[in-house]
Design goal:
Helix content is about 65%, strand content about 0%. It is built from 11 helices and 2 strands. The N and C termini lie far apart (about 40 Å). The structure holds fe (ii) ion (2 copies). The site of one fe (ii) ion has 6 residues, from loops.
Length: about 210
């Protein structure tokens, strides 16, 4: 059932302030602002830009991690109680569904926002094949927003000096996968591998 308690950006920020840690609240603001910047930087026009007074990049950035405060158990309970389908891999690593749960929670909080925005929020965690411009911008912003201490401004400039949004996302994805491998965190998820192949094809065909 929809709660629809958020109808403006200010409402959204107040909700985040009340429900997220300070660090995550600031990260969400950073991702919102950076997603808008990335969309502008790459002259993206092929996406639904506004809904109900919200702009796409800002909305997706603000809501992309709202489920992140739920622990593994909370994420699984949320999916199971609402009939959201998840894979066996996700069941074993519930953090992977925080995009899906965030997207779903945002619908209860804000109403029936565009499906492409919902998809972008779902996909931000691991990436996926066939991501559109908005999805890629959110994926990039989540990695390069100013609060990310592991990056220098030089790193950010280097990523954004790529010729296209597909190339920029590809450079980030390769570095992420390399980092996971070095740290022995986990193997790249199936979705990340699918995104990598998809971006390679798109770049080869001139995107
Ligand atoms: Fe996230
Ligand atoms: Fe994030």
């Amino acid at each position: 059932m929809s709660e629809n308690i958020i109808s403006t950006v200010d409402d959204f920020k107040a909700y985040l302030r009340d429900n997220l840690s300070e660090k995550r609240y600031l990260h969400s603001l950073g991702v919102a602002e950076t997603t808008e910047k990335v969309l502008l930087h790459y002259n993206c026009n092929n996406y639904v830009k506004t809904w109900n007074g919200f702009s796409a990049g800002e909305f997706c950035g603000l809501c992309h991690d709202i489920a992140r405060e739920k622990g593994d158990k909370g994420l699984l309970e949320y999916c199971d109680s609402r009939g959201l389908e998840i894979s066996q891999v996700e069941r074993l690593s519930p953090v992977l569904v925080h995009g899906l749960v965030s997207a779903h929670m945002a619908r209860s909080l804000c109403g029936d926002y565009p499906a492409s925005w919902y998809r972008a929020v779902c996909e931000h965690t691991t990436g996926a094949a066939g991501m559109d411009q908005l999805s890629l911008a959110l994926f990039i912003a989540d990695f390069i927003e100013p609060g990310r201490r592991f990056l220098t401004d030089e790193d950010r400039k280097r990523y954004l000096s790529e010729d296209s949004i597909a190339r920029c996302a590809y450079a980030i994805l390769c570095d992420m996968m390399e980092h996971w491998k070095r740290k022995g965190y986990h193997d790249a998820s199936e979705n990340s591998v699918a995104l990598k192949e998809d971006l390679e094809n798109r770049i080869r065909s001139g995107e």
